[in-house]
Amino acid sequence: MNSAVIVFPGSNCDRDLAVALRQVSGKAPHMVWHRDSELPEGLDLIALPGGFSYGDYLRSGAMAARSPVMRAVKEAAERGVSVLGVCNGFQILTETGLLPGALMRNAELNFVCRDVPLSVENSQSAFTSRYDAGEEIDLPVAHHDGNYTADEDTLDRLEGEGRIAFRYRAPVNGSARDIAGIINDKGNVLGMMPHPERVVEPAHGGTDGRRLFEGILEALG
Amino acid sequence: MKTRVYVTLKHGVLDPQGKAIHHALEGLGFRGINDVRAGKLIELDLDEGVDEAEVEAMCRKLLANTVIENFRIEREALA
Questions:
Q1: Which residues sit opposite A85 in a β-bridge?
Q2: Using beta carbons and an 8 Å cutoff, which residues of A are at the interface with B?
Q3: Mean pLDDT of A196-210
Q4: Is A177 left (phi over 0), alpha (psi -120 to 50) or beta?
Q5: pLDDT 10s digits, B37-76
Q6: Which domain holds residue A126?
Q7: From the list A58, A101, A109, which residue is nearest B67 (CB)?
Q8: What fold does the segment set B2-75 form as a domain?
Q9: How many structural domains is chain A composed of?
Q10: What is the CATH number of the domain that holds A12?
Q11: Whole-prediction pTM
C-alpha cells in the first residue's frame, strides 16, 4: 500500500500516523509538506493527521483546507483515492468540503482528552471492515473542537446511507447524534475525531485502532 | 478602503461560547440578558478597486464557514 501523510505547520500526530501505517503495511508512508502542490504518484491512501494546523487560526482546519497541497488532495479524493482524516484531519476535511457539516467548539468548552467508548456503526466500509457492526471499541480523543454539527437533512442522510462510521456511546463533546466519524457518499473518505493511530500495539494500552489500518490495507492491497 | 466583515453563527446553531459568556455575565450579577451570541469581526484594508462582489467571494471561500456561519459586509470610510 502506497500512502502519504500530509504535514501542516502545527500538525502533531503526523509521526504517530506514519508509525501506525508503517507497522501495519510494512511500508513507510511519504511525508508530504503542506506547500507541495503535487502528491507522489500512485497513492492508495492519503492521511491527514491530528494537531493544530496553522494554530487553529480563524477556525480549526480552515487555513490548512486552503493550502496548496489540499487542492491536490481534493482532486485525488475525487478520483477515488482513499483519504483518512483524524481529529484536525477531520476538521480539515469538513472545511475542504470533502465531508459535510462542521466541527464546532465542544459543548462544555473544555478540551477533552481521554479514552472514550465508541460503537462501530458501519462495518461495511473500506475503513471499518475489520470491525463487527455494533462492536464496542475504545479509542482516545484529544480535542477542543469536536462538536459535529450539520443540518437535520444532512444528519438524516448520513444516518440513512450508513455513513456514520463511529458513534460515541455516551456524549463527549455535544456532537449531533453522538457522531464521532463519518464517511463521504462515495465511501473513500473517512473523517473521525478519535485517534486510532494511538492504539495500535499493546504497549499503547490498547489495540482497538489497529484494525482500522488493517482494514484499509486489506481493501487497498 | 476599510471594510469590516462580521461573521456570526447562523440561527439554530448552538453557540457554546455565547452560552458561557451569558452565564458569566449573570454570575457577575447582570440581569435581563436574554441571549448571547459570540462572533468575529474581521477588518480589511482594501484598494479602492476591490468591489463588494470580491469581498463576498473572500467571505464564501475563507472568512466564513457558510455551513454554520453568516457574514455581513460593511464598507465605509473609517478615516
A1: A48, A191
A2: 58-59, 62, 66, 94-95, 100-102, 104-109, 147, 149-150, 174
A3: 96
A4: left
A5: 999 999 999 999 999 999 999 999 999 999 999 999 999 8
A6: 3-220
A7: A101
A8: Mth169; Chain: A , (3.30.1280)
A9: 1
A10: 3.40.50.880
A11: 0.94
